[in-house]
Structure formats: C-alpha cells, structure tokens
Design brief:
The complex is a heterodimer of chains A (169) and B (441). Helix content of chain A is 25%, strand content 20%. By secondary structure, chain A is α/β, with parallel strands linked by helices. A five-stranded mixed β-sheet of chain A has the order 2-1-3-6-4. In chain B, 45% of the residues lie in helices and 16% in strands. In chain B, the strands form four sheets. Chain B has a four-stranded mixed β-sheet with strand order 8-7-6-9. A three-stranded antiparallel β-sheet of chain B has the order 1-2-3, covered by helices on one side. Chain B has a three-stranded antiparallel β-sheet with strand order 10-11-12. In chain B, helix 10 runs antiparallel to helix 11. Chain B starts with a strand and ends with a strand. The chains are: A alpha/beta (169), B alpha+beta (441). Strand 3 of chain A pairs parallel with strand 13 of chain B.
C-alpha cells in the first residue's frame, strides 16, 4: 500500500509556495521514509492520478485561507470544509483541490483517506520568498506533515486540531 | 445606437491575480474597452545571477508549475548555447518527445476543461459530469497519460529533474519507451478519438470573428518547431513569411510598457502579434504530421486563419500532431537499437546564449550570460502570455464595436470577451493555487 505526501502551490507567490517548499525540503533531506513526496505545482487535478486501489493515504500540504492567524496550521478532511473559491476558468493555471476531488467522486474515483495540512498565509503576492510568519514555523510544518502521513489512515483529524494539539498525540 | 454596457470582470477578487476585462459603453459611445493585466514583475532574471550554470534551470523551472518542462528546456537550451554545448541526436529526440508531452497535457486540459464548457453553454466542466461523463472521464485519462508520458522523460513533469545542461542526468530505459509506445497505441489513440467526436460536434460553435494580425513561432527547417530550431518565423496577414535569429529575440519582441498592464506588451512588424497554437499552425502547417493535417481539414481549420477563438481548434490539431510525432520519434530510437547510455556533453566556453521553445501558449525565450567560472551574470526571459496581451487588447477593440453594431446583449458581449481571453489560454503568472475554505459546523 502506498502513502503520498503531496505539495501544491505556486513558487512565485510567496506563501502559496509553502506546500512545494515542504515537499522539496523533505525530498532534499531524504526524510521520505515510508511515503512518497510529490510536488504537483498548481495542477490539483493530478491528485486524482494517485487515487488508486493501492493508495492507503494521501496527505496534501497546501496554503489555505481559513480565517486563522498567519502561519497557523490545521489538519482537516475535505468533507469538513466547503470551498469559497470561485474559479475564473480563464486559465489552465488555476485550481481548487476540493472541486477536483468532487469531480473525481462524481466520476466514480475511489478517493482514499485524504487529509489536508492547511497553512494560513500571511502574504500571497508575486515574490519568490516566504513570509516571516511561515518561515519561522517551517520546521514545525515539516515535522507535522511527516507525522501526518505516517499516522494510521483512519485517524480522525478534526478542524479544531491545531499543530500544538496534534503534537500531543 | 443608444446603448449602455458596463462590464467589469475583476478577477483579482475571484482568483488570486488575473486579467480584468473592463468595458464602459455610454449611450452607444465606447468610453473604455480594456484588457488589464495587473501583475507584478517577479525578478527571476535577478534570481539567476550569481548561480552556477547547473543550477539555473532548476530555478527557472519554478516560473510556472504548468509549463515547468518548457521553462526547463528553454533554460537548458539557452545555457547550452552560451556554453558551446552540442547535445546528441538522442538527447534532442528525447527532449522533443518531452516537449510534446507538456503541450499535449496542457492542450487537453485547456480544450476539454476550459474551452469545451463554453461550447456546451455551461460555466465549467462540473455540469458536464452528469451529461457527458464518458468524455470527462476520457479527458482525465488523457491528462493522466500526458503526466506519465512527461515523467518517463523528465523524472517528473512538475519541476523536472532529469534534463540538465549537456543531456540527461538519467535517461529513460528502452523498456520504458516500449511501454510508452504501447500505451500510445492501446490507450491514447482510442481515447482521443472519443474526445474528438464530441469536440467535432460542437466545433462550429466557436464565434465567427476575424482580425488579421502577425503570427510568430519557433522555426525549424526539419520539423514542426516545438523544441528544436534556432530561428523565429512570422507570417503576415498577406501570407508573407520572414525569419529571424532567436539570438535577436529582443528586436523581434520589442517589449514596451502599456498603461493597461504591469506586464510588458510586445510587437514586431505590426501593432501586435499572436503566439501559440494558432500561430504555429499558421506558420508551419506544411510540417504537421499527416494525421494532424487530416484532422485540421475535418475540423475546417485552414491556414491562414485569423480567428483567435480557433486557437483552441489549433490546439486539438496539435494534440494529434504531438501523439503521432512522438510515436515516430520513439520508433526511430527503438529502431536504432534503443536508448544508449551517453555522458553529459561538457562546456566548451562560457559566454552568452539564447534559445526558444514552444510552450503550449507560444514561443518562450530564455537568454543567459556566464562568466569564466560558469556563474550566471545575466538572464532574461520573455513568456508567451505577455507577448499575447497586446493582441488581446486589439482583438477587444475590434470585437466590441462589431458586437454593439449587431445589437448583442451585455451578457453576450461579456461571454464573447471572456471566451476570447480563454482562447489564448493565458498563463497569467501570478495565478495562484491557494485554497479558500470555511469550516462546516
């Protein structure tokens, strides 16, 4: 059975790159023991390609606006949230993981247990750096993502679980 | 005519960063008709300065998560030009197959997920799931194949790892190419036929609109240029063609600042030019694979076509070309005894160099200068979406009066303008992926 830790985002939009940076750090430092780290850029539809019968768990790390303080992290399942993002449908370069998963479900894809590590951005604007709020907690995000992808697939992770609580489990 | 029209498609509030369509018509008088691009510079050129030539492509591949193969190939090709590196014929073929994979993947998404809903009269692909489930399923399968096809060559298609100056750090195996070839025949060709039947049935629904302009594409005397080639060709509305050296890219693109855009506009001989699938088709129709030519005929697409909406139809033609041309290249490698191990070709000098490749949205230029230690001292990058902004603006300026004269409604005008922008398949580089959610309680 396979476990995937997937990073989504855009490298050139500051905190939107957090998912990619976490994956890159894990791969570069060979911390990927027991799971496969994947950078999928802005192309959320590619997550469906890893929804296979032998997929035990997918953890997606992504920049998420969820009304928290900048840098705060929450782990949740897709069914615990609803998207408020409206797509322009102008460009192949935009995406919404939640809508992609919904299309997959409607088409009969069997979505394996999937959790999202959502990180609240401080800045989403054209720049290749990361905001100080996320930079300061980067190591924490890496540790959390590794822990999440190695947890039992059925572990319930609710929307009220910030990183400090998860660390106690 | 005493008509009032107010359109403000302000995508900054809908998606993070995008162009805005702003139209004000007061009592029949056009007061504003603008394609606004409020994106900020990203200073990639500054970021590569001081980096070793082996690092530059890894950085520039981050310019775009969709076209990262194209940025990698353009970057590596420009670096090789600067370093006097002549890659092997095998590397050239493998990179061309990789370039086709990216164009295939992106075109499938654009045509089937973004353009097709307009033709079916729905706002997105979601309403098509219950009504056209087999096609949506087929589209996802094709897209997945494009992803896996690229991964065989590049290691991964998002921010590829295997394409490096001098060749490939890790070559695909003969067995991998054999499997890929079998999948082309067994899976892709039949799936594409299914998608094509549906697209053919609605292809006549693209708006009728003509605006002759200049079309620019990478030129290669040996093949329909996507990767190889060191010349640029333009074709004018009267059919005359002119070629330029890629090294002269600055005097071909002529970037300038427009008050409508923080991204630079481009022009060559005319007030604007178009890059992308239609530009390639118009310039190099004769070099298309016969299967792609036959498809163009079936879809009613002929050069010289000056309807920008049909850029999507040209993309369909290019999907067929990419499939059949890649099959041909794979066969050449397999017939020659399979993939052969090759060392990386080493630099013979450190100087300046430029290159271009065709990414899905058009011709992409990269240029670098290196010092005697192989450190980058200068970089430049001109992306196709920026090259198309001026052409979109001039399309708007012809389209709006025509629609007003035809007494079209505000909604019709808005849709026509949105479809026009979509037709260009813009990669507005500040588009982001960030999720916006609220928790259910």
């Amino acid at each position: 059975m396979k476990r995937y830790l997937i990073g989504l985002g855009n490298y050139s939009m500051t905190d939107d790159s957090i998912g990619l940076r976490v994956i890159e750090h894990i791969a570069d430092n060979r911390l990927d023991q027991g799971f496969e780290p994947l950078e999928l850029g802005q192309d959320a539809t590619r997550v469906l390609f890893y929804c296979e019968p032998d997929t035990e768990l997918i953890v997606v790390v992504d920049c998420v606006r969820m009304g928290c303080a900048p840098g705060e992290v929450r782990v949740f399942r897709p069914e615990e949230v609803q998207t408020t993002k409206e797509l322009a449908h102008f460009s192949t370069h935009e995406g919404d993981l939640l809508q992609t998963l919904e299309v997959g479900r409607r088409l009969g894809y069997v979505i394996p247990p999937l959790r999202i590590v959502g990180i609240e951005p401080q800045r989403v604007e054209p720049s290749m750096d990361l905001s100080s709020a996320l930079q300061e907690r980067f190591a924490e995000y890496v540790e959390l993502c590794i822990r999440e992808v190695l947890l039992p697939a059925s572990t319930d992770t609710g929307p009220q679980n910030p990183v400090s609580e998860l660390a106690l489990r | 005519m005493s008509k009032n029209v107010n359109i403000h498609v302000h995508h900054v509030t809908r998606v993070e960063g995008h162009g805005n369509i702003v139209v004000n018509v007061n009592n029949g008088t056009i007061e504003k008709c603008e394609w606004q691009v409020p994106e900020a510079p990203r200073f990639f050129e500054a970021m590569v300065r001081g980096r070793h030539f082996t690092e530059v492509a890894r950085i520039t591949s981050r310019i775009c998560g969709i076209c990262s193969v194209g940025h990698t190939l353009a970057s590596v090709k420009a670096t090789e030009d600067a370093l006097g590196i002549q890659i092997s014929e095998q590397s050239h073929k493998l990179r061309t197959i990789l370039k086709h994979a990216e164009n295939f993947d992106s075109h499938v998404v654009h045509v089937l997920f973004l353009a097709a809903p307009d033709l079916f009269g729905v706002k997105s692909v979601f309403p098509l799931v219950p009504t056209h489930e087999p096609v949506v399923r087929t589209a996802l399968r094709l897209k997945r194949f494009g992803h896996e096809w690229g991964s065989v060559l590049a290691g991964r298609t998002t921010h590829p790892t295997k394409v490096v100056p001098g060749g490939f750090s890790d070559l695909p195996t003969t067995k991998e190419l054999q499997v890929l070839r079998k999948r082309f025949v067994d899976e892709v060709v039949p799936d594409f036929k299914v998608a094509l039947e549906v697209l053919t049935s609605v292809a006549h629904k693209f708006p009728k609109f003509e605006r002759p302009t200049e079309y620019m594409a990478l030129h290669n005397t040996q093949e329909y240029g996507v990767y190889g080639g060191d010349q640029v060709q333009t074709i004018m509305p009267d059919g005359t063609k002119e070629t330029y050296r890629v090294a002269d890219y600055k005097s071909i693109t002529n970037e300038y600042v427009s008050p409508l855009s923080t991204a630079k506009y481009c022009r060559n001989k005319m007030q604007s030019y178009m890059a992308g699938a239609l530009a390639r088709f118009n310039n190099h129709y004769d070099q298309l694979h016969p299967e792609a030519k036959a498809l163009a005929t079936a879809l009613g697409l002929k050069p010289l076509c000056s309807n920008p909406y049909l850029n999507s139809v040209a993309q369909v033609v290019e999907i067929a070309h990419s499939v059949h041309e890649s099959l041909r290249l794979i066969d050449e490698i397999l017939d020659g005894g399979g993939v052969k191990d090759e060392p990386l070709v080493k630099p013979t000098r450190f100087a300046e160099g430029s290159a271009a490749v065709e990414v899905p949205r058009g011709i992409l230029f990269h240029s670098y200068a290196y010092d005697k230690n192989g450190m980058c001292v200068n970089g430049n990058c001109i992306i196709p979406t920026n090259q198309n902004h001026a052409n979109i603006q001039y399309d708007f300026e012809k389209l709006l009066p025509e629609m007003l004269a035809a007494d079209k409604s505000q909604d019709d005008i808005r849709l026509a303008m949105e479809m026009l922008v979509r037709g260009y398949d813009p990669c507005i580089s500040c588009s982001t992926h960030v999720l916006n959610v609220e928790f259910k309680q």
